[in-house]
Design a protein that fits this description.
Chain A: GO terms for molecular function: protein dimerization activity; transcription cis-regulatory region binding. Chain A: Keywords: Nucleus, Transcription, Transcription regulation. Chain A: It is found in: Nucleus. Chain A: Pfam families: IBH1_N. The complex is a heterodimer of chains A (about 220) and B (about 90). Chain A is mainly alpha-helical and about 220 residues long. Chain A has a domain of about 110 residues. Helix content of chain A is about 50%, strand content about 0%. In chain A, helix 2 packs parallel to helix 7, helix 4 crosses helix 5 and helix 6 packs parallel to helix 7. The longest helix of chain A is centred in the C-terminal third of the chain and has 33 residues. Chain A is elongated and about 60 Å long. About 25% of the residues of chain A have low confidence. With about 90 residues, chain B is mostly helical. Chain B has one domain. Chain B is built from four helices and one strand. The two termini of chain B are about 35 Å apart. About 10% of the residues of chain B have low confidence. Classes of the chains: A mainly alpha (about 220), B mainly alpha (about 90). Chains A and B meet through helix 3, helix 4, strand 1, helix 6 and helix 7 of A and helix 1, helix 2, strand 1, helix 3 and helix 4 of B. Strand 1 of chain A pairs parallel with strand 1 of chain B.
Chain lengths: ~220, ~90
């Protein structure tokens, strides 16, 4: 089965769990030096496994709740889609383990409590498994020539500021933060979203494979 | 990279945001973006506003993708009948 996650993994058998299917791929990207920590966090296999397990659990709950309350609420397609999205976001935020602003904002919005603003731990606790698997060939993101940033002069600061503000509105929970915070949250958020997309893609593929009568071709 | 975080002086309370820091962050962001038109661009400079613009677009695209995927997922979860649901459930346990 052409799972999006696997390129050199053997095809999953029925005895494997879905999470193994979802996290088959050994990423051949090497960690860039600047953002090694967050990069490794969202690309490691362990993280993907954690997220896919949580996602499946959350989706099961969505399924159960939607089927039980089918008579009371009008199960429009949009509502169900939104419920799925919220469950996925919640699973994603939980996988972040509370270290980022956006994840706390997502969880706070769901529970509708006011999280007390926690200082992010400055002495970063390096997780036990942050080894990014590098297998030989690097992708286009791996080896880049040294680039420098232009356009951060005083004259264009209002423009840059405006763009950073609009970026902050896109990332949950960062509407009123300062510029470096927004940039940092955005990098983490993008990587988390990418992982979410990959996981959901694989899940969709898996489920659509099952919705046909035949088992997926090996 | 704890060095990046320790360089930030927000801990002291003063909002002394160095240019260097912002540069770093923008570079980091640029590395994450999909390089659609940048493959032939060998010059070592990126424009900050362009990076930010592309970041906004990219996040919007990712969000839309997640929305579409969750839509599909919800339909798939609805449409699988009980036999397959039992099969999936047995796989998930």
């Amino acid at each position: 089965m052409a799972s999006l996650f696997s390129d050199n993994e053997q095809p999953p058998t029925n005895s494997n769990s879905i999470s193994t299917v979802l996290v088959g791929k050994k990423k051949s990207l090497s960690a860039s030096t600047g953002d090694g920590e967050s990069y490794a966090r969202w690309r490691s296999e362990k993280q993907q496994r954690i997220y896919s397990a949580k996602l499946i659990q959350a989706l099961k709950q969505v399924r159960l709740s939607s089927s039980s309350s089918a008579s009371t609420s009008s199960p429009t397609a949009q509502k169900r889609g939104k419920a799925v999205r919220e469950a996925a976001d919640r699973a994603l935020a939980v996988s972040a383990r509370g270290r980022t602003l956006w994840s706390r904002a997502i969880l706070a919005n769901r529970i509708k409590l006011k999280f007390r603003k926690q200082k992010r731990p400055r002495q970063t606790v390096v997780p036990a498994v942050t080894t990014v698997v590098t297998t030989g060939a690097s992708s286009s993101r791996g080896r880049k020539p040294r680039v420098s940033v232009v356009g951060l002069n005083k004259k264009s600061l209002p423009t840059v500021n405006r763009k950073v503000r609009s970026l902050g509105r896109l990332v949950p929970g960062c509407k009123k933060e300062s510029v470096p915070v927004i940039l940092e949250e955005a990098t983490d958020y993008i990587q988390a979203l990418e992982m979410q997309v990959r996981a959901m893609n694989s899940l969709v593929e898996l489920l659509s494979g099952y919705s046909g009568s035949a088992p997926p071709p090996i | 990279m704890s060095s990046r975080r320790s360089r930030s002086s927000r801990q002291t309370g003063a909002s002394m945001i160095s240019e260097d820091q912002i540069n770093d962050l923008v570079l980091q962001l640029h590395r994450l973006l999909p390089e659609l038109g940048n493959n032939h661009r060998r010059s070592g400079k990126v424009s900050a506003s362009k990076v930010l613009q592309e970041t906004c677009t990219y996040i919007r695209n990712l969000n839309k993708e997640v929305d579409d995927l969750s839509e599909r997922l919800s339909q798939l979860l609805e449409s699988t009948d009980s036999a397959q649901a039992a099969l999936i459930r047995s796989l998930l346990m």
